[in-house]
Structures are given as C-alpha cells and as structure tokens.
Write a structure and sequence with these properties.
alpha+beta, 9 strands
Amino acid sequence: MAYIIFGSASNVEDRLDWHKELAEFCFSKLKAGKPVLGLCFGHQLMADFFGMEVAKNPNGESFYGSRLINFEKNFGSLNTGSQSQVFVAHSYQVVGPLKELKVLASSPDCPYDGLFHPELPYWGLQGHPEASVDFYQHEILENCNPLKDLVLQNSLSQGLEIIRQFSLVAQK
C-alpha cells in the first residue's frame, strides 16, 4: 500500500487542523515503511512538516501551464539528468532551506520542484504529474494561453510516467 497527497484549495500557511492531522498520518505511514508521494499541496505540506519553508511564489506570480523539471536524483527509471514535462498550477512553493529532505528535481522557476527523504519512502513534486486533459481544460486553460500540442502531450505522457515510476518504487 502507498499513499498520494494531492493538491488542495487551501494553502499550508492556513495551518488548518486537518493539515497537521494529514501530515502526522503520512509521517506515521512513512515510519512504518509505507511510501508517500506529495503532489503540489501534498509536496508543500510534507516539506513544511520536515521543517522547510513554503511561501508565495516570487513576485506573487502564479504558475500555470507546463514546465520542464530536471531530475537530480534517480527516481525509478527516471535517472539523474533526465527531464520531464509536467503541468503546474500553483501560487505557493517550497523555498527552503533544506533540512531532512533532499532535492529530487528542480527547474529554473523552482529549485525544490521535487524532494525526497533519504531514509523514509517519501517523494514530493511541486507540479501535477497526475493531471488529465480535464485538469488542463479546467485549470490551465482558464489561467494561461493554450499549450502547444507537443507540450500538452508531453505533459500528459511524462506526468503519467512519473506516477508509474512512483508505483514501481512503492512496490519495492
């Protein structure tokens, strides 16, 4: 069994009771050896839990669209130096400093685009590799210009590959 924490309409800085409960639940699962993947809000929630800062994006800018992330550590068959195109839709991101977590992936827009725990089975990504065409049509298109077909297809297929790699890593 593995767990995925998806996005949320709330932000980590809201400090809602359920945020703390969810982070503690996930930490208990991690300590029991159960893999956890945090996506967007989930990534921010667990980074905050592990002592990192989450803040509004630089200049208050919201990121909508797709971006290329660079893997700085192996993640399944996604090797160090490989890149993946993923959808992004966020106004907050992890800004550091690194404490218990290490960098899994980065981009020019976000140095902590992906994080992992070196001892616990935790991985987190700022983007939305789980995103579907529906997510693109209702979240991305409402906030930015249409993506070129190749970028759209790469974001869908490469995001799916990231989720597939998590499922394979989680089975080990």
